[in-house]
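Form P-L/3: holo structure prediction, ligand zinc ion.
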Amino acid sequence: MNSLQIEGTDQPHYADARQIQPLSGESRVAMLEPEEEPMVQSSYESTESGSDAGDALARLEELSAQYGIMPVQLPRSTCSVPAETLLRQLGRMTAVEQPWLPVGTIGPLLIVGHYDPRHQECWGVPPFLTIRVLIDPQQYHSVMKDLEGRLRIKPIAGHNSAEGMPAPPQTGKVADVMNWFLQYYPQSDRDREKFRKLIAENDDCDFSNLAGLKFLPRHYGAAFLSLATGHPVYNPEEAPAQTHFPDGLLEKHNVYPVFCGHQRIFLLSSVTNNYAFEDEWLSSGSDAVEMVTVLADPTAIGAAVARNRGRSSRDKAKVDVGDLYFSDNTSIVEIDPTEMARVNPQNPNNTPEQVVQWVLNRAVQARASDLHIEKYYNTARFRARIDGELVVMHSTGEEELPRYIALIKNYANMPQERQKLLDARFAMKFGTRRIDARVAAVPCRKEQQKLILRFLDKQDGVKELSALNLSERQTSIIKRTMNRDQGLALVTGPTGSGKTTTLYAFLNSVNADNINIQTIEDPIEYEIEGINQTQTDPVHGIDFPNGLRSLLRADPDVILIGESRDAETASASINAALTGHLVLTTLHANDSLRAISRLLSMGVEPYLLADALALSQAQRLVRRLCSYCKQPVAPTPEVEVYLQQNGVLSGGLDDPLYQAIGCDECNNTGYSGRIALMEMCETNGEFSELVASSAPVSELRRVALKDGFMTLYQEGLVQVIGGNTTFDEISCLSYTSSGLELPS
Ligand SMILES: [Zn+2]
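OUTPUT (holo model):
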């Protein structure tokens, strides 16, 4: 079996594990009797009583050395959703009391955990499709409990499709493993065909390392390389928090430890030797310890390091006072996250710079979109908007507030005047990561000021269409719209609903040599190569209407107008859209159909709008369920009926719904990150006629629904069914629904 091997150790059971034939017992199915042979007490259990965490780790390490299997302290004590899905795809019911338990996945491979490696049964999943890791008995039992709950909601098949599947060829070549995968791995014909294409299109790549396998979906490259070479492999998303190495060092070498024992450290890396990392670690005066390299996807390792940083910035218990590094560069503020981790924000001797940089660092690590600095009673308060919710990051005495404000205004080269509304920006560097901040200064009562910072992450600024999580219908609408030679595309939604990200992704999808793209924006949030971006500038008289007029002289094919705020801009946009330009703009409206009536109320001629309009889109962001702790719940018949009545379900639900729980990964909120819901109304014959005759919204909706249109609420319900969010998160959108009561 594909256990994590350690070279040079005695491994009575698992030496050259890949060659071990499946045991006859593995073909047993649920109907058979449980395993009768009593298990010998493992060395683990015999010393278990009165243990603490340290002892448990030491015993894990001892067992690991004995059996040659990597020990892991799982970041969660549940079966992950992908692991459950893969178990259903590859396995079948088991009657054994203590089988290996699915805890995670690595692309097509299932990570299974047990506290006693002498057990064999693994749900009939062929050994070469599993990665076996040692976990402690407590985690084993909680995963077991969780899995039992999941299988009660939706039972697993009595036989498995992977049974009798031949083992991968032992030729050491990834290409051979890919062919084997295509031929034998249980998957849908569609997936198989997708893979075949992907491999055929990239057959000139170097398959001997992970860099050459980048074209594969995440983790597949690492999994295939491991299947071909026998090198151990693991998924960085399933690695626990670490405090053993400085985050900066891990980031520099793109490695991450899975398990730090006294004798051995298991290190995730995308290459098989890490001498440079080991040298640097040893040269800092650390004790020599054996490092075992475990292959992993390079992008996922980077994400694990970033996640660990985010965790340590939340954890106040570990911070203590240290020195700060100031940059000479005035336009870029350099903030070292490792240094910041040493600042104790409660220390009264901190300078205002230390406090401000500590807060900036913490807000950015927590993926905040905005930071508010304001007076609140007798305090100076820092609040960050994280996943749409304001959270207090820090507060000090109110007498400090003017210093914080002066400092940030200094970063952004803003005048220190208090009575004016001011706008400016500055850049921050956190290690290799650059984030820009747009600063707005607002005068408040009693000569006070408030600052609002908006963070713009250059790295995830411009997305590909494929990164927007669009449905097939949505993707084809966007492609049709963006390939038109003229027309108007409207995007509506409140501030902070991700409109800009969406528009940039749309623009980027047609960004090519033969197309001239011009924008007029306020502000330019991200700079995109190949797109001509103009910033509105009231001082020099550039606003949306006259900016657009001058843009039209620049021979554009595609135009983005940041916002159609007034009748003049709206009419000019529509004229441009009727004269050979594809025009994209945003508008304030509650949904995609009301955007149409809003334009009409601004004085746009209905027949012109009917001719010009290609697409009206509305969007909202809702919080995404944390993948580490979301829990399945069986849907009640009432919920099924509700979903059917809302037109998003025909028949029953095959899969459970999920509820928010809360864990360390998500700061106990149950949610992590956000997803965009998009309501898209593509205009066609009958619909255009209705627009031309200024038909009411209800009439527009009736016709749109015939054409496959889904409201924001329906799009939200689809995400609930998909296990990505909850009824609670989308309840604020229910005004766009049928008005039925949600059963409790
Ligand atoms: Zn969580």
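COMMENT: Confidence is low (pLDDT under 50) at residues 5-51, 315-330.
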